[in-house]
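Data card: per-record layout.
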Amino acid sequence: MIHKLVTGPIVPYLLIRPRRFGKTILLDTIQDVFEGNKELFAGLEISKLKYDWQPFPVIRIDMTDVNSNPNHFEASLTDLINTIAEEENDIVLGKRDYVTAIRDLIIRLSSRNDVWSQSVDIGKIRSRKNVVVLIDEYDAPVLDNIADFKKCEAIRERLHQFYRVFKSQSRRIRALYITGITKFKKLSFFSVFNNVCDISNMSDFSTICGFTETEFRENFRGHLALALKSLKNDNDIEPEATEESLISEILSWYDGYSFDGLNTVLNPYSIVSFFDNERKKFDDYWYKSGASLFTYEYGLNNKNFFKLFDSSLSPGSDFSVADPSFMDNATVLWQAGYLTVASVEKSKTIDSYLLKIPNNEIRNAIVYEMMHMNTVPKDSKDPIAYLSDYYKDFISAFVSRNAKNCESAFSSFITSFPSNLLGSSDLGEYVYHALLYCQLKAANLDVRCENMGLNGISGIVVRTPQGDWIVVELKYEKSIDSSEYVAGSVNPEPTVPAPKRASPVQRAHKPRVIYPGPDGDPMPSGGSHPPLEVGGKSKRVAQRLIYNINRAFKQIVEKDYATPYISSRNKVFAAAVAVYGKSDMMFAFRDVVWSNELHKVVSYKWAREHGRVPICQNMAADAWRLP
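The structure for this 627-residue chain is written out next.
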């Protein structure tokens, strides 16, 4: 990919990527190519391709090194250019203004490095296209002032003068590469150049930063073996776990970033941090390395938080911000790394991008941001500890599987959110999944989401401090009085449909399927469950809640959500949550285990009574069996 860039058309190239995604290291590599350091690339792909390795002088400017205060910006940028000239190129420019300084540096480097090239038509000619310019984090001064439009405008005017130099000196510039976090349409750089090649969403360069799964598997083999051993020693993973199952877990945490809707990459910072950690553990490394104020103020807020879990945001076609004073939230969140491209719908006029949350780490990051805005005081020194203490009643009830206390605490949690959020017309199941996930994750528990669909999270899995697992399924529906329902579309007193009766011969050959009852006792399929306590709820609401509780348990059983977590060491519990209207809810817990005889999830009590001990036969295939 770098070979395509250095041998391609001589135009300004732009790459937009989230912070800590390898943009700077990419420019380091491009710089070494242009400086002719061929020995550094021995054995790598670019060394096998046709390239003359001619050295060029390089001007490297990192905008994060410039003082972003408008009152000091010019002097700071001037000093940086003078430093580059003197220390890296042995050129004394004098204390000139930043526009004159960068122009003179380009001219003097070009004159020093005149080269002769052969032209078929003209003969031997002098060429001064031999200065390479690399600008890292070009948008940093703007993002640092994003909350103050006047300061943004002042910086924009100064940058406009700065970038005009590169256009006026284009005949002396061999290559110009720019990286940043955000693409501002009206920000100087784009108003100066009319031929910028934006490679940010091009499939040819979509994996230029980050690790693809293939690269990860090939280059981290030794690290994977050591990590697997460490995780087993620390009891953070099942003894039967394989390297393949560890890779699957790593991918669920750090993979999923796509910039073209086709190819995905793993977050390079999180991967390196995971393996560099002496005690290998899954953590939110990228997010905890420093959240972006830009994202917090302009990307993630109460108005769009719940929509993220619906994964149906589309920013249009070019992911650009028209003006710093008006920014689309979806675009900002994509550029900051909180959302990624799920798919692209192409048409003759415009391409439509469907966005989603890329992985577990970002889902956690979104939760922390939301909790900070709504719960954590601004002067709190340890937000995670504060959240854990704030929600300790709910977490304690959930981990101990106290259904009634869970209902009370979760109801209080929901009422703490602004009423306009929970009363919106587009309220959906994903909102309650998000709320439940928020409370569980806020306590720093090991929380995972099995499936992320277009309509929210399907199946939340929680590992308790004791090492057991709780598999959660939530069912939500609006009130029957809602305008969404038409007469006759919903039975006000639903009942579980009776199974079709089988013939005596069919019944003789079909083993009885056992489902876990509310207290762990196995229940015959098709039979009625013992009544659940519903407190002071009306009869109609109680019936609807019980109906949805049974639906949730049935889904856990039939889709085998629990089976990958069953082992000889830990117990697995099923948790069903039903929400009716905006505040009526019910929690229920059951203990589960896999039965090889019945090919169904049954209770531990049943397994003990029948002499069954759960052990793993084949973790790689997620086939959990009892002997």
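Known properties of this structure: Confidence is low (pLDDT under 50) at residues 116-126, 452-457, 481-532, 613-627. Residues 464-495+502-625 form one domain.

See the next section for split statistics.
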